[in-house]
Structure prediction request, 576 residues.
Amino acid sequence: MPGTSPLPLSLQSKLQKARALPSWQRIVNNLNLIRQLLLVFFILRFVQRSFYFLRGHGVLGSIAMVYHAAHKQLYRTFLSLPGVRSKVDKQVESARKDLEAKLTGFDEKVNRYKQLPKEPWTQEQLKTELEQLAAIKRTRWEEGKVSGAVYHGGEELLEIQAEAMKLFSVSNPIHADVFPAVRKMEAEIVAMVLSMFNAPGYGAGATTSGGTESILMACLSARNKARTERGVRYPEMIIPSTAHAAFHKAGQYFGITVNLVHCPGPDYTVPIHKVRRFINPNTILLVGSAPNYPHGNIDNIPALSRLAIQHKLPLHVDCCLGSFLMPCLAKAGFPSPYADEGGFDFKLPGVTSISVDTHKYGFAPKGNSVILYRNKQLRQYQYFISPDWSGGVYGSPSIAGSRPGALIAGAWASMMAIGEKGYIDATHKIVSTRITIQNAIKEHPVLKEALTVMGDPMVSVIAFESVDKAIDIYDVADAMSAKGWHLNSVQDPPGLHVAVTLPMTKDGAVDSLIEDLVEIIKKEKERVAQQAQAGTLIEARKKGNQAQLYGVAGSLPDKSIVERIVVAYLDTLYLA
Ligand SMILES: *Cc1c(COP(=O)(O)O)cnc(C)c1O
Prediction:
């Protein structure tokens, strides 16, 4: 009936008009609507991401980041200016020449082989050549002057490892049916390490080729878990700035954004409230180190565990470096971290994975590490499965396909030969030596004025920095190198790191470290005082390697030059 329509006339006519539109125009209208919806969607996502960014970095932090990015870009542009660029190229080239001379030059005469020998070598020939290779001048780590690198080095253990590896040199755990003993040994290594770290009965794990692979696996598992269970497509993880570089590698390899939480002094552990601010729906993993590589400090794992539980997130504890020392601390008579708050391992309910390097303080041959998970489901997220590969149904637990069974035999034999008692003894020697160095820095009249320990180390690593930057710590590093020491420079802030291993616990080694350090600090202080008196009249001395590299790196807004030098270094490794 006319006049009884519930709609006002104007609207009715509009609707009729709309109906009257030709179909192509209706399609265009719909497309416009979709376009507008998409625009709104992207704007919302941008706003959301900006909000998470701002909350994570803070307003000032975000401004600082934008400023640094601009500064970096300007510097990059400056570096690419024609005149500047050729200068930079020249510098990089000269660094490459230095590296080549240092890495591929030998004091003794050596033969170089770039093609297979036409005729097979005789045993005699081989033996002679191998002995000559072994005699090439190298760092005498046996004297205990090297930080890290060789963790045990005892003759007897080397014999045991060689024997075990020889027995299983052809074995490959990818063929579990062909090599049943290697499968058994691998499972037992994992079981023993799970038990050392207080895993529940349903805990699981896998052996890997090293700490880096263990960390890669933990990050991959967390990423796959978040993707499967929560549909996370833009994964992010939150790591302390002191966490190992392997986490950045995982970020690059697996497309995970790395949110770095700065760890300021004086304690240099990760500030928990800052970790919390970075948590958002894309977060897939929290990380703490026990201890970290740069300073040997242990993050507040109990607090991270509480945060992980509260936000239902996985928490990885990097115990690569701590390895077998960590579970032995208490038994060796030292304080164990956070003992009255649940410790640092699976006893804390929020800890979901732990990486443990059997090839560090587990004293196994290099190429061994273990990744532990709270349960089998987490381990399954690292598996690779290809059911329809033309070569057959395929599955492998970690990165490698074929793997060296010999290394598993070497690790298993080391663990059995050393036993709990052996690891406790080693922990006692190593941690005592670290404490000796620490006490010297805190109490020796010369050292205590010039150096301060970074944080509160509890295990094998100690790092120190220069008080008020009065002396350049990298000059100290270079002077120590000149005396045959191989210590490690850390940056941001500048420091020097020593990882005590068994060779350094030998009689006299640590005393000579302290003596050399005292002598060098005295000289450095005198030099700095002289320079201050003479003003600019005295010409700055030529800087050593460490001071040059880190001095330059620290002062540059953009590290592209450093990156180019690293590329040159890596290239040099493959010069035959
Ligand atoms: C050594 C180390 C790693 C990685 O170990 P690699 O075996 O060299 O791959 C990871 N985290 C920490 C704290 C380490 O010291």
The radius of gyration is 29 Å. The chain has a mean pLDDT of 92. The chain is about 50% helix and 10% strand.
